[in-house]
Amino acid sequence: MRRKIIDISVGISSDTCVYPGDPETLIESVYSIRGDGYAVSRVSFGTHTGTHVDAPSHIIDGGPNIDNIPIESFVDGALVLDLSFVSTDISLDDLVLAFAGFEGYDASDVRVLLIKTHEYAHEDPDETPFTAQRCLQSDAGSWIMEHGFRAVGVDTLSVDVSQSLNNHRLFLENGVIIVENLDLSGVEPGLYDFICLPLKLHGCEAAPARVVLVEKGFLNK
């Protein structure tokens, strides 16, 4: 029986919301089928556009770039937690409450934590959604580390409450990959197989990625 595959990537377009101050996305036609017999487009965007992966070099001088991270790091078991009940930034107590009922999972087989807040896929560039998004408090970030997760993904623009980048440092300095701006709107809490394929941009600190979840068991077939 074919297992369900869920695309949790945010598409990239000229309307894709980006972190305040990041480059805007530009997409333009270079050649057209009508005029040239074939179509080619030119795109310009920042490395943190849409659903993307942060590499250690994002905050560590001389740290590994996105093309240095082993591809095996992007394929693993994932646990999705629903934190949409939280109206402020996500605390340790919030994570523990959402985690209740999942304590018996096999930690050796599930090393990706995805946090669903319903703050995904902002499309209006005139809004300032980052100021209203629910991010991780420092004690929540420490809990994630203590539970042995090797990657953390969020449906917000950042894992941090502010530009202090405390969670970025905590995760990336300890080899935990960060995936931001996911679309978890169609995903129920639970266990999945996680496949994340960032663009292989040489020498870059991040890259947009296509990310999917598959019903648990796909990777063990």
In short:
This protein has 221 residues and is an alpha/beta fold. The protein contains four helices and ten strands. It has one domain: Glucose Oxidase, domain 1.
The radius of gyration computed from the alpha-carbon positions, rounded to a whole number of angstroms, is 18 Å
Our count of domains comes out at 1
What structural class should be given to the helix and strand makeup? alpha/beta
CATH superfamily: Putative cyclase
User: What fraction of residues sit in β-strands?
Assistant: 25-35%
DSSP helical segment count? 4
Provide the spatial order of strands within the biggest beta sheet: 4-8-7-6-5-9-10
Distance between the termini: 11 Å
Report the major sheet.
Answer: 7 strands, mixed, barrel
Parts with pLDDT < 50 across at least 5 consecutive residues? none
The CATH architecture name reads 3-Layer(bba) Sandwich
Shape: globular
CATH third-level topology: Glucose Oxidase, domain 1
Q: What is the mean pLDDT? A: 90
Order of helices and strands: EEHEEEHEHEHEEE
Helical content stands at 10-25%
Task: Work out the number of β strands.
Answer: 10
